[in-house]
């Protein structure tokens, strides 16, 4: 076996005699000169560099199409969802207390009332705050305004539908 080296484009271990990388298929005989400059910080860079060593700006995206698109995680909706969950706990507790007040009910029957009230209130609150949830998931810049309108005007059916319409993604890329 021959000596090995690392491909300067993709970082894979290849044979030192190789003219092209067997992984990224790029020509390894391109001269390593410093006649290029970073667009962002204007520092000199090598022709074969994929990113600037000084500022990290990316120049060349690898020519392969086998990369995965990163998953978009929207963390903005967590406080709203926790609020809906806590409200459901409180609502189900209140419904259970009022439904069993003055009645001779066992602990098991109270638990059944509580679970049923929790499920019903959870479904109702998620439907009620659907415009807010959609606005957060669609990264709307006015999500807080939609939340306040949804909270105060959602009781009226018209207010709920208006906030729902504003929460849909726009046709332009945001």
Could you explain how this protein is built, in words?
This protein has 174 residues and is mainly alpha-helical. The protein is built from five helices and four strands; from the N terminus they run ββββααααα. The chain has helices spanning 78-100, 107-128, 130-137, 143-153, 157-167, and strands spanning 4-6, 13-15, 36-37, 44-45. The strands form two sheets. Strands 1-2 form a two-stranded antiparallel ribbon. A two-stranded antiparallel sheet has the order 3-4. β3 (36-37) and β4 (44-45) form a beta hairpin. The protein starts with a strand and ends in a 7-residue tail after the last helix.
Quick rundown:
With 174 residues, the protein is mostly helical.
Topology of helices and strands:
Blueprint: E1 4-6, E2 13-15, E3 36-37, E4 44-45, H1 78-100, H2 107-128, H3 130-137, H4 143-153, H5 157-167
Antiparallel strand pairs: 1-2, 3-4
Helix pairs in contact: 1-2, 3-4, 3-5, 4-5
List key phrases describing it:
5 helices, 6% strand, 3 domains, 174 residues, two-stranded antiparallel ribbon, single chain, mainly alpha, elongated, two-stranded antiparallel sheet
Rg from alpha-carbon coordinates: 29 Å
> What composes the largest sheet?
2 strands, antiparallel
Please identify the structural class as seen in this structure: mainly alpha
State mean pLDDT (0 to 100 scale): 77
Number of helices: 5
- As an assembly, this protein is single chain
What strand line-up does the widest sheet have?
1-2
Helix amount: 40-55%
Please state the overall shape, judged from the principal axes of the Cα atoms. elongated
What is the first-to-last residue Cα distance? 54 Å
Series of secondary-structure elements, N-terminal to C-terminal: EEEEHHHHH
Number of strands: 4
Number of domains: 3
- Measured by DSSP, the beta-strand proportion falls in 5-15%
Q: Uncertain runs with pLDDT below 50, 5 residues or more?
A: none
